[in-house]
Amino acid sequence: MMLISTKGRYALRVLIDMAEHSGNDYIKLKDIAERQEISEKYLESIVKQLVSNKILTGLRGKGGGYKLAKTPDEIVVGDVLRLMEGSLAPVACLEDKPCPRVAECRTLEFWRGLDETIRRYADSFTVADLMRTDNAGFDYII
Amino acid sequence: MMLISTKGRYALRVLIDMAEHSGNDYIKLKDIAERQEISEKYLESIVKQLVSNKILTGLRGKGGGYKLAKTPDEIVVGDVLRLMEGSLAPVACLEDKPCPRVAECRTLEFWRGLDETIRRYADSFTVADLMRTDNAGFDYII
DNA sequence: TTTTTTCCCAGTATATCAGTATGTTGATAT
DNA sequence: ATATCAACATACTGATATACTGGGAAAAAA
After folding, report:
1. Angle (nearest 5°) at CA B112 between B111 and B115
2. What is the SS3 assignment for B40?
3. Which domains does chain B carry?
4. Is the pLDDT of residue A46 over 60?
């Protein structure tokens, strides 16, 4: 199993791409799709969620496209991933299925800790951090 | 998506159950299945992998069952989860698909850091740690 | 040799992922 | 007005994985 699907990964790549190519103009999805080598049609479904969650704004027609609704340093990676994946919970028993064995469960605290660890890591980066090319700043928490 | 499926979760519960009920005898899967309220048939497939990886030993026939092949403090949770899940990699591009955009990828280091964070957490616990009932010791790394 | 319990192989329903296809709405330029 | 451009909307599809179930064979003990 995998925690993060293409939706989350592509969403981040789109946001970074837009941040790197941001002027005053709207950016066409077609251009992003070409640069990132991702199907434009598939990106539509991803970008749609980013728009409805006020991370991007869209404009139709000629000269239209998408624009960041926030500055890159205001976009928290954890927020983007939770939005795209629905949740970053590493196990089902932390969300959809509150299992009935909670009282006797020896593993629950372990999962809570894992969840918290992931959350802290993902929330400690913004899109601005990901734009860095020198690969510094990614020292995970010791 | 979810990082850990029932295979990983059930495997841990089986190991903790066995550690808590361990004497000199082999423990029947039927008993574990009843205590844990998990289908015995499904547990078979899980336990099979634990046996072939020397975490458990099995014995057939009357008086048979399963036994821990190591002491609980020798069984690292991360090892069990990696075994059952195949991998704990949070994204596909860290394993099956070494993506061709590595050189230009702005997100790769972020994923590496997440992977490492998860690995460190999971490897910092043993089955013996999970047996504790006081819920202490699960302070995730600050 | 019968019972017990692990071991082995195969199949199945459901869901999710990753993507495609077809069209509609709205903004701008001519 | 109307043609064009690009976002927006809906529906569908193939592949894969999860979470099981079922039937039986092998081995160990009574």
Report:
1. 85
2. helix
3. 6-131 (1.10.10.10)
4. yes
The secondary structure of chain A in percent helix, strand, coil, rounded to multiples of 5, reads 50, 10, 40
If you ran DSSP here, which 8-state letter would residue B53 be given?
Answer: T
Residue that has been written with the tokens 């957490």 in this structure: B121
Q: A137 pLDDT exceeds 90?
A: no
**Contact with chain B for residue A14, Cβ under 8 A:** no
pLDDT digits (tens, 9 = 90+) for B10-30: 999 999 999 999 999 999 999
Which residues neighbour strand D (beta carbon < 7 Å)? A 1, 26-30, 41, 44-45, 47-48, 51-52, 58-66, 92; B 5-7, 39, 41-42, 44-45, 59-64, 85
Compute the distance between CA of residue B62 and CA of residue B65 in angstroms, rounded to an integer: 8
Is B62 (CB) below 7 Å from strand C?
yes
Q: Is the pLDDT of residue A61 over 50?
A: yes
DSSP 8-state code for residue B33: H
Q: Are A15 and A75 in contact (CB under 8 A)?
A: yes
- Chain B residue numbers with beta carbons less than 8 Å from the beta carbon of A139 are 113
Cα distance between residue B84 and residue B88, in whole Å? 10
Indicate whether A140 pLDDT > 60.
no
Residue B5 pLDDT > 90:
yes
Sign of CA dihedral A128, A133, A137, A142: positive
Check if A139 contacts B (Cβ < 8 Å).
yes
Phi/psi at B63 (nearest 5 deg)?
Answer: 80, 0
Strand C lies under 7 A from the Cβ of residue A45: yes
